Amino acid sequence: MKRTRLAAAMVIGLAALPAHAASPQHDAVPVAGALLPHKISYTLNLARLKAGSLVAAGGKANYQLRDACDSWSSSQKLEVQIMSGDGSTSVVTYQSATLEDKKGRRFLFRTVQSQDGETTSETAGEAIRQRHGQVVVHFTKPDMKTITLPAATVFPVQFTGALLEAAHNGALHLQSQIFDGTSADGSTPNYVTLGTLAPATPGFDSPPFAEGMAVPVSVASFGGGDSSLLPDSTYSDRLWTNGVEDKLLIDFGDYVLSGQIDSLTPLPAASCSQTR
């Protein structure tokens, strides 16, 4: 899911080779066509406290992926309630809606982050991949501006496809630059560690998991840029070959939340013209 791997922990290689960049030149990542359109909800529980004055934390996360023929339409909402030692509570919310071209050429986005009902940040705009691979992003919020991102930049669903392709190839590591629209500063460097793709027992009984295979994934995001020595957020989960995630573990810095599936509903396949 998605700093989309849940907002980069507000918030998503190849065969024991050295880590390398996920390439957007793979026009449409082959395994991306096997992604399951679905809506899913998770309960987030406190796994551990690491530092600071917090005494409790928990919340809910919802994610939806729809097949829009030439594009993937996705939306998500993450809500976390935290309690301090003095008994005061605060609710932090992240919401996003995106439309991502399946060939990685165009990405529309809108994100809103708030605390206790007050908006703290908002982004909106459109990213377009140029002929030579660079991505030009036109922001309409928070301000009108345009930035250019390197050709190695990938979008969120494209990133999921790259992870599954890497897992199928037996890779152990993957590096990427992800743009999900969350930050007006540009793309976020990520370093991914993958386990072994293998048959797995789901923690939630649902037909989409029947006789399925999954791979453990751990994503470290470096919001400070490539020169940062330590990640500013980490996220891990188990990614199934249909794109569904379970066993979430989200590190927010002072505390870590685990996520368990509450509900999972497959969505109807898109009815698309074959003449496109």
- Topology as a string of helices (H) and strands (E): HEEEEEEEEEHEEEEEEE
Number of helices: 2
Spatial shape: globular
Could you tell me the strand content as a percent range? Answer: over 45%
Question: Structural class, judged by helices and strands?
Answer: mainly beta
Mean of all residue-level pLDDT scores? 85
- Uncertain spans: 1-31
Helix content: under 10%
Tell me the span between the first and last alpha carbons: 29 Å
Instruction: Please compute the radius of gyration using only Cα atoms.
Output: 18 Å
Characterize the largest beta sheet: strand count, sense, and whether it forms a barrel: 16 strands, mixed
DSSP, total strands:
16
In a few lines, what is going on in this structure?
Helix content is 8%, strand content 51%. The chain contains 2 helices and 16 strands.
Summarize the structure in words.
The chain is mainly β. The protein has a 16-stranded mixed sheet that branches. Strand 7 and strand 8 form a beta hairpin. The protein starts with a helix and ends in a 10-residue tail after the last strand.
